[in-house]
Design brief:
mainly alpha, 2 domains, 0% strand
């Protein structure tokens, strides 16, 4: 048995609570497209990848500790109509426009948040 087999075993998931965490993330994610991602999530044994991810997580954790969390809202699913924007003469419905506007506003808030001096990525 190699290390990857032992880390990805059902016993490891249960003993570490990884399955509980994945279930919580799936149930509480703000974009339903991520639900499948969290269902398929597996632990990594790549030390460099883990280190890189933790470096970036420290900055976000510090923001929460400063009581200045990342601005998050529900992200609308525009995947069923976004490709239609390539069609000449296509017009957004009022609901499509609202969803697109919501994504643009949220993206703008997140960008402003991440370019502050607290996030030297």
């Amino acid at each position: 048995m190699n290390q990857n087999d032992s880390i990805c075993s059902p016993e490891f998931y249960r003993d570490t609570g990884f399955d509980v965490i994945c279930s919580w993330l799936k149930d509480n994610c703000l974009c339903f497209l991520n639900q499948d991602f969290f269902t398929q999530l597996t632990p990594s044994i790549n030390i460099q990848k883990i280190s890189d991810i933790q470096d970036h997580c420290d900055e976000l954790l510090s923001a929460f500790q400063r009581k200045n969390p990342l601005p998050l809202e529900t992200i609308p699913d525009i995947s069923n109509w976004i490709d239609s924007l390539n069609i000449s003469g296509f017009q957004l419905t009022p609901e499509n426009f609202r969803e697109l506007y919501q994504i643009l506003l949220l993206s703008s808030r997140i960008k402003r948040y991440l370019i502050k001096s607290d996030f030297p990525l």
